[in-house]
Write a structure and sequence with these properties.
With 374 residues, this protein is α/β, with parallel strands linked by helices. Helix content is 24%, strand content 21%. It contains ten helices and 19 strands. Strands 8-9-11-12-13-14-15-16 form an eight-stranded mixed sheet. The two termini are 23 Å apart. The structure holds iron/sulfur cluster. Iron/sulfur cluster (SF4) binds at residues 28, 30-31, 33-35, 43-45, 48, 93, 146.
Length: 374
């Protein structure tokens, strides 16, 4: 029986994000590792490989696809209450011990992680997104940077169908991949996991490429939201939280920052969960640093008003949320505060999607299943 790696090695295209070397080696530039790969070898992510001096990258399958509330990505400042058709391949360039998507992200490293691929075309995925009423198509579940060519293939079809596009990513990018993605990606969520390079090295990465990615995305006009999973004993010191918030505010105080609660998972089942008090403390340090939109996530209904968007000028509640559900939407069609007229940063299209009676979780729109493709 073929191994998972053998199955995936048949589902590839020549990569676009690489340089050939005269000695048969290649240099991949899809993520911050910038692997130099000899003939016959794989990169750190284990899904891109050099065969005969050509770099191959995943193509033509998904390991998961679901129609989710866009708040689940999370994007809070992009078409609230809409559906985000979400798809993912396999593999990751990091190996976080607390990964909550480890079944897909670590499929090629961990024999416990089994998530078989299903063959599909970009057009077929987008047809499902349109059929289900999605507003956007989002590459997520695994690390999308390492499968950027496939994501752009899907996004070309999505744009042709009038849909927006998004990445849910660890942000371990390169200037080359950001230039490649810029024309095709409307929304980009970055997981900023720590502000300590030593911590990042424990996860298999480095801090600097992530900081450069956030600056680069903002500079080219992509809508960016940032998530920090607050993990007790790992990144929750006041000093580190202040440094994270100061960095984001230095790029732009309008970037939404989601501080979210850790639940024991994968190889960190002994670490206690993040409490509402810890999130409140982190959010307060974020506001002190000058951030205008700070949210507390993963503890719906337990964090007071920290799931809501409020006008930074007058305090009016603009979007009231509970978990992924938009309870009330008060922005004007132009995306401004109805009380004082201040513009809210983000992507709004004048359509109020977040009413309680029209929200996907309230009306229970069926999740799309891979079985529907057969
Ligand atoms: S995507 Fe990253 S980890 Fe994978 S081969 Fe390219 S540079 Fe290396």
């Amino acid at each position: 029986m073929a191994t998972l790696a053998e199955v995936l090695n048949e589902r590839v295209h020549e990569a676009e994000l690489y340089e050939r070397r005269p000695d048969g080696w290649v240099r991949c530039v899809a993520c911050g590792h910038a692997c130099r790969i000899p003939d016959g070898a794989v990169g750190v992510c284990k899904v891109r490989f050099n065969r005969g001096g050509t770099l191959f990258a995943p193509w033509g399958y998904v390991a998961g696809a679901h129609c989710d509330p866009i708040e689940k990505k999370p994007f809070f400042h992009a078409w609230p209450g809409s559906l985000a058709f979400s798809f993912g391949m396999l593999g990751c360039d990091l190996h976080c011990a607390y990964c909550q998507n480890w079944v897909t992200s670590q499929a090629l490293r961990d024999p416990q992680a089994v998530s078989p691929p299903a063959d599909v075309t970009p057009e077929r995925l987008v047809a499902e997104a349109v059929r289900l009423g999605a507003r956007s198509v989002v590459s997520t579940y695994n690390e999308p940077l390492i499968t950027s060519e496939w994501a752009v293939g899907v996004f070309r079809a999505a744009r042709a169908a009038g849909l927006a596009t998004g990445f849910v990513s660890n942000g371990n990018g390169t200037p080359e991949v950001l230039r490649y993605l810029a024309p095709w990606v409307d929304l980009y969520k970055v997981d900023l996991k720590s502000f300590d390079d030593k911590h990042y090295r424990r996860l298999g990465g480095r801090l600097q490429p992530i900081l450069d990615t956030i600056r680069g995305l903002h500079a080219c006009g992509t809508w960016v939201e940032i998530v920090t999973l607050v993990v007790p004993g790992f990144n929750d010191s006041d000093e580190e939280i202040r440094a994270l918030a100061a960095f984001i505010a230095g790029v732009s105080p309008d970037i939404p920052w989601h501080v979210t609660a850790f639940h024991p998972d994968y190889k960190m089942s002994d670490t206690p969960p993040t409490t509402p008090g810890m999130l409140a403390r982190a959010a307060s340090l974020g506001r002190e640093a000058g951030l205008r939109f700070v949210y507390a996530g993963n503890l719906p209904g337990r964090v007071g008003r920290m799931e809501d968007t409020t006008c930074p000028a007058c305090g009016t509640v603009l979007v009231e949320r509970r978990g992924y559900v938009v309870e009330r939407y008060a922005l004007t069609e132009r995306g401004t505060c109805p009380t004082c007229g201040t513009a809210a940063p983000g992507r709004w299209d004048g359509v109020v999607r977040g009413r309680r009676d029209t929200h996907p979780e309230r009306t229970r729109i069926r999740s799309w299943s891979l079985l529907d493709m057969s």
